[in-house]
Design a protein that fits this description.
The protein is an alpha+beta fold. It has 4 helices and 16 strands. The protein is globular, with a radius of gyration of 17 Å.
Length: about 270
């Protein structure tokens, strides 16, 4: 796992736009925005300010005054799985959305303008995993990376990696780097040699309540302490903190059930 942005300063702040095909933003749609803000504010130290309202009430999460994520309000009659959704940068969102359709994916929302911030679309791949597209204008995306409280990696959990990888390669121009292992179906998606996301095939272990889905990793100083704090705040632990090849990680949910992973990235 690495920071997928082109270049950052020592505090993680970006110097340039996200390259097309790079995950550039992450957003969460929930039923209780006030409670969700309180949860993530206490967990990651986020503050909030209003954002574009095309899809209903929406706030942007700030870390030390810099935008890191978004939280929106689901309509009361929409009973969808609560999930963090990564947005992938596009130079021409209409053309990218057309490619999504041609390659067997679905465009559920948009493309549409988000005030002067940019243009967005919400899509799903052929296996049903939801992701967003973002064409930046005033809002370029996550403004800081690689520090605690920021999204640091995105991983697709799906039935098998090979078939769906072809979709993402064709739409976004990714190169793939498989992990050679008899017991692990995993590959890394790269742009110009830089890792930007991962795909893990988990077969029948794909959750029945949500199917294939993207999982966002958030950087923390200490996953064990963050897990304890999360539980006190009403979250739940799916997989306790443990050491991995990428650092110490724990997979958890917020009180509404959105899954995500806490990670202290190995340096």
């Amino acid at each position: 796992m690495t920071d997928a942005r082109g270049s950052t300063d020592r505090n993680g702040e970006a110097h340039a736009r996200y390259a097309p095909g790079t995950p550039c933003w992450v957003s969460l749609m929930v039923h209780g925005t006030a409670a969700t803000q309180e949860f993530y504010g206490a967990l990651f130290g986020w503050e909030f300010r209003p954002g574009p309202r095309q899809l209903g009430p929406y706030v942007r999460a700030l870390l030390d005054g810099r935008e890191v994520a978004g939280i929106g309000q689901l309509p009361p009659d929409r009973h969808l799985p609560i999930a963090w959704t990564p947005y992938i940068a596009s130079e021409d969102i209409d053309r990218t959305a057309h490619s999504v359709r041609l390659c067997g994916g679905t465009v559920a929302v948009g493309p549409l303008d988000a005030e002067d911030a940019g243009r967005l679309a919400i899509c799903s791949d052929p296996a049903g995993a939801v992701f967003g597209l973002w064409q930046a204008a005033a809002h370029r995306g996550t403004a800081v990376a690689g520090v605690p409280g920021t999204p640091t990696w995105h991983e697709l959990l799906t039935f098998e990696s090979e078939g769906v990888a072809k979709f993402y390669e064709t739409v976004f121009g990714y190169e793939r780097e498989p992990v050679v292992s008899a017991d692990c179906d995993y590959l890394t998606l790269k742009l110009d040699g830089r890792p930007v996301a991962g795909i893990q095939g988990v077969g029948g272990a794909v959750p029945r309540d949500r199917g294939s889905h993207w999982l966002t990793y958030f950087e923390v100083d200490d996953p064990d302490s963050a897990v304890a704090r999360l539980v006190d705040l009403g979250g739940h632990v799916l997989r306790p903190a443990h050491d991995s090849a990428y650092g110490r990680v724990a997979t958890v949910t917020d009180p509404e059930g959105a899954r995500f992973t806490l990670v202290r990235t190995a340096r």
